[in-house]
Amino acid sequence: MLSVAAPMAAALLLDRLLGEPHRLHPLVGFGNAAKLLEKTLNVGRSRLLRGLLAWALLVLPLPLALFWLLAQLPAPAAAALSVAVLYFTLGRQSLLEHTRPIGAALLVGDLPQARALASRIVSRELRDADEAAVTRAAAESLLENGHDAVFGALFWFAVGGAPAALAFRLANTLDAMWGYRNPRFERFGKVAARADDVLGFVPARLTALAYALAGHTRLALRCWRTQAPQWDSPNAGPVMAAGAGALAIRLGGAATYHGQLEKRPTLGDGTTPAAADIARAAQLMDRAIVLWLLLALPC
């Protein structure tokens, strides 16, 4: 029997070679379906129950159908389909394609271009941001989404195969779409937000540990222990605190969202982030991926 590391490595290789499909990506179709269902159900009373119903209708059928299909297929075909599904749940290459140009623009002194590129991947306002602020935005996005788009899917694949990885990615997508604390989604999106917290709890901490082991370990563990509890998100806190500590840079801090300045806690410790730290964050993620694959070999 092949180690679970083999299909993981195969899916990661496909992601490296093919990147994110620009046409007919399954998650794009899923997102369109989620928008339509939300417009239909997020009305009137009982929005919490309506949000639960919408979440169940979107997250459960595809993984269950995939589980049934894999059981019907011959082993080689089932293995190939599992790798293909895992590939579609991964986003390592997409993360690099979105963050590398930011670092490249900063390195040649094109701060306006770097701001524009970073604004495509984060929701904070960067109109007047300096190099350090743009770097923080890119590095934080890369470290946090390393869990969402890579490690979380790999963890659930190891636990329950392609159906579990798919369920995690669908739930994570719904949290990104509905998990907001505003009048529109406060109740309707609560199930999506809590489900993502639960599904991401263990893999987020394993991601944080991998970041720590792949960088400045003692500093990363100290930042994780002391800073993560101050962060709003129970999963993003450990991941980003450990990642910032592993890189020995300072992330977090105040940022402006929708015209309002939010005083966020500091993450990490060390130097003020500079353009080259975006590439260092990507390298940290890749070293952590290698650690995961090595640990998966006996499984």
From TrEMBL:
Pfam families on file: CobD_Cbib
Membrane-topology annotation of the record: Multi-pass membrane protein
Keyword Membrane belongs to the record: yes
Domain of life: Bacteria
Keyword set includes Membrane: yes
The entry's keywords: Cell membrane, Cobalamin biosynthesis, Membrane, Transmembrane, Transmembrane helix
Transmembrane regions listed in the UniProt entry: 52-70, 149-171
Pathway entry: Cofactor biosynthesis; adenosylcobalamin biosynthesis
InterPro entries xref list: Cobalamin_biosynth_CobD/CbiB
Major subcellular site: membrane
Compartments, record wording: Cell membrane
Family that this chain belongs to: Belongs to the CobD/CbiB family.
Task performed by this protein: Converts cobyric acid to cobinamide by the addition of aminopropanol on the F carboxylic group.
Protein name per Swiss-Prot or TrEMBL: Cobalamin biosynthesis protein CobD
Source organism: Vogesella margarita
Lineage start: Bacteria, Pseudomonadati, Pseudomonadota, Betaproteobacteria, Neisseriales
